[in-house]
Amino acid sequence: MNKYLELADYRRRLAEIYLSEPVDGLAGWRAFRKARDQLFREHTQSALERDCRDRVDTLPFFEYDSQFRVQATLIPVEDDEELRIDTGGEDGILRYRRVARLGTRFGELTLFWLTGYAGGLFLPFRDSTSGSATYGGGRYLLDTIKGTFGRGFVLHGDRAIVDFNYAYNPSCAYNRQYACPLAPRENWLKVPIRAGEQTYPGRS
């Protein structure tokens, strides 16, 4: 199959994983993990290098912890100046606009809009586990362009649920052929977020 059709199929399946029941609590997290592991092991567009897929039963995750599912207040932003981040890869420089600040008990995060054709919401972050227990470049909670919505970030009017149990690694955490947009400094949390995906063996 054409590689672009394969990639479209991968994204469709990923979106289905995020939207499929159950979505709440430990049962929802377990179902998500099982489906994500299977997709990474079996799909031709998996970020895992081919020689790793047969050796991986499950991606490394912290155990589910309800304290990392928190309510966030959406704080309006006055500065919607465009932010540019160089991916270091073929995507070149990506352009972001700030949508809102998210006030959580772990600190504030900026919710971004990736500009360009169609655009999409994007929520990357780093925390004090980055570079040790988790990937050094940080992790994602939301990237609607890729279909990862409905679990790590759920909008309810002027509030949202942020669930760090669904924090996941960018593709570059699994394969050096990828170059990924990483969290800008304003989304670096000072506290440890021991939830979500951990460092893939051999990467930091």
Low-confidence stretches: none
Silhouette: globular
State which percent range the strand residues make up.
Answer: 25-35%
Helix/strand/pairing category: alpha+beta
Distance between the termini: 33 Å
Radius of gyration: 16 Å
Order of helices and strands: HHHEEEEEEEE
Largest sheet: 8 strands, antiparallel
- Mean of pLDDT: 90
**Percent range for helical residues?**
10-25%
Number of strands: 8
Number of helices: 3
What this model shows, in words?
By secondary structure, this protein is of the alpha+beta class. The protein has a domain at 57-187. It has helices at 3-19, 25-42, 50-53; strands spanning 69-75, 83-86, 93-104, 107-114, 120-125, 139-143, 153-156, 159-163. Strands 1, 2, 3, 4, 5, 6, 7 and 8 form an eight-stranded antiparallel sheet that branches. A hairpin with a 5-residue loop joins strand 4 and strand 5 (120-125). Helix 1 runs antiparallel to helix 2. The radius of gyration is 16 Å and the shape is globular. The termini are far apart. The model has no long low-confidence stretch (mean pLDDT 90).
Secondary structure elements and pairings:
Blueprint (H helix, E strand, L loop, with lengths): L2 H17 L5 H18 L7 H4 L15 E7 L7 E4 L6 E12 L2 E8 L5 E6 L13 E5 L9 E4 L2 E5 L41
Antiparallel strand pairs: 1-3, 1-8, 2-3, 3-4, 4-5, 5-6, 7-8
Helix pairs in contact: 1-2
